[in-house]
Amino acid sequence: MTGSVTGSTTGAAAEPIGGRPIRVALLGCGTVGTQIVRLLTEQADELAARIGTPVELVGIAVRRADRHREVPAELLTTDAAALVARDDVDVVVEVVGGIEPTREWLLTALRAGKSVVTANKALLAEHAGDLFTAADASGADLYFEAAVAGAIPLLRPLRESLAGDRITRVMGIVNGTTNFILSAMDETGAGYAETLDEAARLGYAEADPTADVDGYDAAAKAAILASLSFHTRVTMGDVHREGISAVTPADVAAARGLGRTIKLLAICERVEAADGTASVAVRVHPAMIPRSHPLAGVGGAFNAVFVEAEAAGQLMFYGQGAGGAPTASAVLGDLVAVARNRVVGGRGPRESAYADLAVRPIAQASTRYHISLDVADRAGVLAAVAAVFAEHEVSISAVRQEGRTSDASLVIVTHSAEDAALRSTVDKIAGLPFVNRVVSVMRVEGEDQ
Amino acid sequence: MTGSVTGSTTGAAAEPIGGRPIRVALLGCGTVGTQIVRLLTEQADELAARIGTPVELVGIAVRRADRHREVPAELLTTDAAALVARDDVDVVVEVVGGIEPTREWLLTALRAGKSVVTANKALLAEHAGDLFTAADASGADLYFEAAVAGAIPLLRPLRESLAGDRITRVMGIVNGTTNFILSAMDETGAGYAETLDEAARLGYAEADPTADVDGYDAAAKAAILASLSFHTRVTMGDVHREGISAVTPADVAAARGLGRTIKLLAICERVEAADGTASVAVRVHPAMIPRSHPLAGVGGAFNAVFVEAEAAGQLMFYGQGAGGAPTASAVLGDLVAVARNRVVGGRGPRESAYADLAVRPIAQASTRYHISLDVADRAGVLAAVAAVFAEHEVSISAVRQEGRTSDASLVIVTHSAEDAALRSTVDKIAGLPFVNRVVSVMRVEGEDQ
Asked: Which of B68, B178, B319, B365 is the most exposed place for a label (fewest CB within 10 A)?
């Protein structure tokens, strides 16, 4: 019998393949796919030794077959659906991206007992549940290390190494484009639009940068991280998302003045209520962090993720978050894992969503805030502003007042407060007669609450 | 049939256990063992959900049964051999340490098809080959994430996530005691002996600190890291080992003067000769690193490990390297993995030693060196010293000369040079008439060569 177990609904592992090669279909041959083909060729002997049997690439699905001179022409096909359905495919590796028709191809593969390795964060953030259900029914593996933080081994540690612990918080920089832009704004003092243009010119931003700068990419990754960390299905719609387009030079300067810098963070938290009920909060937004924080020094294409667990304490993972070769490394690590499982007849971890925790709305999320106001320079302003904070039960941690000619700037950092309370506070303050302008409102992370 | 597959020599995975609990024997109940028992109890429901069946602790082997009031008395036994041999044990978790009789217990377990989770770095650094052979013969799993860098998920990434890549270098701080001592010497300027006493008083050093300060602990971890990274059996005897007892306040001051700090590093390198032949070099020694290097800021009980791979690039892993709860977290992650394998009838990765690379002697290792000399303050000294370097083909990168009353200090930093050439150079320089004393010779890491 071959590696394709069809129609089984036992959830048992696929049968061992014996001594024949593991046959792989590759969907997509762009930057990452090309590197996968290169590494499969260059490291063929090593991969065979590690797996216990050779890997054979049996087909590569691309959009236009005449544009891929760097891979063997006889492997190319424009019919991905037919490639996926072939009887002689054990594993489907997908680096096409997008939701449809990719979702349908991967479901077809999984239902037929073919293991899937994918780097498709958008698809996983929306449809991981369907994919896992299909994998579980046929006993196939579903691996996706490359979907979050590129080459950094992060999902396997969350899914496996920390499986005996309770993860409480994940906080990281998981998008390189926004990290490049915010770092550049911090260095040059330039505005957002201008810096985005520069990033596009240097190849750090796409022609349509929406997915990156509006936080969709980071939100998809946050959904995946939260699902694995908290054993709960979390999808894109559960993630509170704010991009970086509203970050101003004034915000950047305000952060700098307080020894902080601004980063776009993906944050996944397990929150325990007084009655012991746990829930999860997942959000992506720019935030000020202290310059002394390890995440503050993470620049350019690098990603870094902090993980806090009850027994393990604080862990950090750092490495390249994107790029052809780094992403291909993560894909091939997964390919070796699913191939080994085929060889010995086992399988990797299934979906773990038993905890099924509720997702808290952003209004209930608690963080510290930095608020910068442009106010009239007269006595009693601070007292009036402080009264509004007190009224909304938002506690003030620090205040700095700086006079200019006729106006003054007032900077307030709060203790941890609920988002909803803070929004109401700011709304009311904006309407006070001596407040000229709310210059900046930004969350503060990476400090004691 | 139960989960214990006896006598099989096929290397196939153990059979699924069906719906009954996974039965665990714990060897050792000190700091780590106590935390394992606590977490197994407190997180019983979560572990069962993640594994697919409950975990049942069926026995705890200790040296003296009357000293463990914190665990259920009916589980305690002083006969570890009998506990390991029990028919109703699926998994043996070992946190006793030491080579014998632990080795015999674990071999017995593995030969009987019982999976083993161990934190025993000394045993693995000497006898991993025997243990893997026994595991392979019966189809049992052997996991040991807790043996290196405590809670940090490091071995699973090396063994699995990077299995599709080629690791070229691993460099890390993997011993907390020496890291505490070196950090304190750097901060206070105090001597080694005095700082060691202080470390012992604060509980950071054992009564007999030999294993830590002489580098045995780090060397064992280096052997394990090198074995996994380079698919080659590397044992303690292959690791060049220098401890920290010879580090002087003068070394520390010299490092500081050059913007560096001293750390005990474990370094595993894959070296490729001109003819393409690869070999590995594994060493543990104190080295100067730039204060700007991420490892320079790693303090106290924390460990951090850099990994470089051809496709993935540079990765860093950071977290708590020791302590009861962090180590227990790593052990339980492994326990969940081997238990899951039992539930689905699969197994984890076996030993991968196919590459079987040669180990290079330290004399052939190339690093940069920092040499500090106490010399007579007269003309021509630098020229004469430089001539000795040239004669041994050791290239000088930087020189600093500082005059005092009648003597002067001469600090030389070399380009990358072979250890043997450097030793000969220093021997000859020490014999020059105007060289009063060789104050410090230390390797420099973490900079371009």
From this structure: B68
A332, A335, A344: which to substitute to probe chain B, counting the most B Cβ within 10 Å? A344
Q: Which residues of B touch A339 (CB under 8 A)?
A: none
Ordered domains of chain A (ranges, CATH): 22-150+324-344 (3.40.50.720), 155-320 (3.30.360.10), 364-444 (3.30.70.260)
**Which pair of tokens denotes residue A5?**
């177990």
pLDDT digits (tens, 9 = 90+) for A421-440: 999 999 999 999 999 999 88
Instruction: Supply the DSSP string of A183-246, one letter for each residue.
Output: HHHHHH---HHHHHHHHHHTTSS-SS-HHHHTSHHHHHHHHHHHHHHHTS---GGGSEE--STT
A213 and A245 in contact (C-beta within 8 Å)? yes
Q: Which residues of chain B does A309 touch, with a Cβ-Cβ cutoff of 8 Å?
A: 151, 329
DSSP-H helix ranges across B169-315 = 176-188, 192-201, 210-213, 216-230, 249-257
- d(CA B391, CA A231) in angstroms, rounded, equals 64
Alpha helix stretches (DSSP H) within A345-373? none
What's the pLDDT tens digit per position in B300-314?
778 999 999 999 999
Cα dihedral: A179, A183, A189, A195 (round 10): -50
CA-to-CA distance for A197 and A176, rounded, in angstroms? 15
Minimal CA–CA distance to A414: which of A405, A423, A403? A423
- Rounded to whole angstroms, the Cα distance separating B364 from B378 reads 35
Question: How far is residue A142 from each of residues A4, A103, A106, A331, measured CA to CA in Å?
Answer: 15, 13, 10, 12
Q: How far is CA A310 from the centre of its chain?
A: 22
